[in-house]
Amino acid sequence: MAKDCARVSRDRIRGCWAVPKGLRGGCVTRTGCQRPGTCRSVNCLAILVFLLVVFNSGGGVASARVLVLGSISLDPVGVVRVSQPFVDYLAEKLSSYGIKRGEVAVADSVAGMASLMREKKVDLLIDSSVTALLVNERAGSKFLLRRWKDGRDAYRSVVVVRQDSRFNFLSDLVGETVALEESFSTSGFMLPVLGMASSGLRLVPLDGLAQVPPPDAVGYVMGYDSETQMTWVERNQVAAAGLAENDFKQLAKSALVPLRVVYTSPIVPYDVVVYGKHLDHGLVSRIRAILLSAHDTREGANTLDGFDQTTMFDEIPAELLRNVTTFGPELTRLLEGGAE
């Protein structure tokens, strides 16, 4: 690039957009920088004005002309495969707002996603409700809609033990090990942790099943999937497991030994949509309208079904939203204390 050019670009835009220093003389070109002489084409001026408007104003989306959907997962390849058609559909519907394409950004933690949101590298996040709450608190993003998944609009978590165990209450788990799923899972981590914390229990992360928890606390290990958690309980490798109620009901049908529930959490929305605070109001309103009506057309319904069996989007019921937001202070304290 010529020395008298100042680059104006974004990581996800192919090619090199550049403008002359001080906006003096010459044309803006897509692959070069400043063309000597006076700009002879009206198109050059139009491009320059467009760049100034988009880049100097922030553009209203994470990357100019690109809508970025975020996800928190340890399987980025799988997430992109499932999510890309959905964000492509949404981007196409937003073409009148200058959106040309959609992309998927995957973080491996709540903190990582919150950072992407703060840096305007992610525009939308669709995730479990308590996970989304944590991102909102750290990044300033806001709730938008609820997602129905596989025909379900809400869910809750349970903590389960072997039927023949001595454990009847959460308080009985002091000095024992509990299997949780992963730190960004609402049903497999956050709701069970909140239940135990509200019972006055102290939780301590363990390095593995072989580590003995402190006698005055509940130790926890990550199983990363419900089937593994259940297997550990069945084999007496852990005292209990925290997981989604629906997962427990399904896995209990083929359990090696009878299991029972010692704790059931409040009901929360299945998944929610949140948006970055950098998005302008008009764009957010249009996204809301597109999502609310997507299930009404064959194209939209097919796209939703391919997006991890999404059924529809609707408004978040006030009662369920209150259930989620009341968790905020306690959950933040727990995570900052090392649970994350």
Automatic annotation (TrEMBL):
<protein>
    <submittedName>
        <fullName>Phosphate/phosphite/phosphonate ABC transporter substrate-binding protein</fullName>
    </submittedName>
</protein>
<dbReference type="Pfam" id="PF12974">
    <property type="entry name" value="Phosphonate-bd"/>
</dbReference>
